Amino acid sequence: MNNIVKISPSILSADFSKLGEEIISLDKAGADYIHVDVMDGHFVPNITIGPEVIKKLRPLTKKTFDVHLMIAPVDKYIEQFSNAGADIITFHPEATQNTLGTINLIRKQKKQVGISLKPKSKISLIEKFIDKIDLILIMSVEPGFGGQKFMPEVIDKVKAIKKIISERKLKVDIEIDGGINFENSQLAKDAGANILVSGSTIFRENNGDLKRNINLLRSN
Predict the structure, then answer these.
(1) Are 84 and 57 spatial neighbours (Cβ–Cβ below 8 Å)?
(2) Tens of pLDDT, residue by residue, the chain (220 residues)
């Protein structure tokens, strides 16, 4: 796992009326990834964007598109999001009947594989698959809406996953998403997270100074 902390701004908090401009601004501000939350109104109680939007955004930046699929059933959409320009495709084990099968579908598309755990999802759901993936996304809020408060109890989960990865000498990134701000970002990093997803803090703090906010999250 890379020790350098990467920042993946969540466009869920962007101004959707000028989403293309927001992507270009994040690129210029030094974002490492662009985090795209895809929600279907079924797996989570909200609806966001689909592959066609991602396809339109893709030419605007060379940054990694970090696509978090909160949709079920997930398998039938993987090829669409891959073709639209996703670089990392992350899914929830609860959204598939065959976790290994879904991993293999993403691999077949030659994309990086992520698995996400909701706050109440147990590590045992994914433990036997950790050596087959690139990234584990720990949700520090209940998935579905931006702007929620960070749940500090998930820090123990981050530490436990970090321990498993270290013991097995694996190169697996630990990403955390949900209510990440200047106050709790260091807590997440100390626990073992090396990719921070943040929406509201990046887009709204310091009068929306994207570069400053990204750098503060990275260096705090």
Answers:
(1) no
(2) 446 899 999 999 999 999 999 999 999 999 999 999 999 999 998 889 999 999 999 999 999 999 999 999 999 999 999 999 999 999 999 999 999 999 999 999 999 999 999 999 999 999 999 999 999 999 999 987 767 799 999 999 999 999 999 999 999 999 999 999 999 999 999 999 999 999 999 999 999 999 999 999 999 7
Q: Which residues are catalytic?
A: 37, 177
H/E/C letters for each residue in the chain?
CCCCCEEEEEHHHCCHHHHHHHHHHHHHCCCCEEEEEEEECCCCCCECCCHHHHHHHHHHCCCEEEEEEECCCCHHHHHHHHHHCCCEEEECHHHCCCHHHHHHHHHHCCCEEEEEECCCCCHHHCHHHHHHCCEEEEECCCCCCCCCCCCHHHHHHHHHHHHHHHHCCCCCEEEEECCCCCCCHHHHHHHCCCEEEECHHHHHHHHHCHHHHHHHHHHC
Measured between alpha carbons, how far is 123 from 121 in angstroms, rounded to an integer?
Answer: 7
Rg of the chain's alpha carbons, rounded to an integer? 16
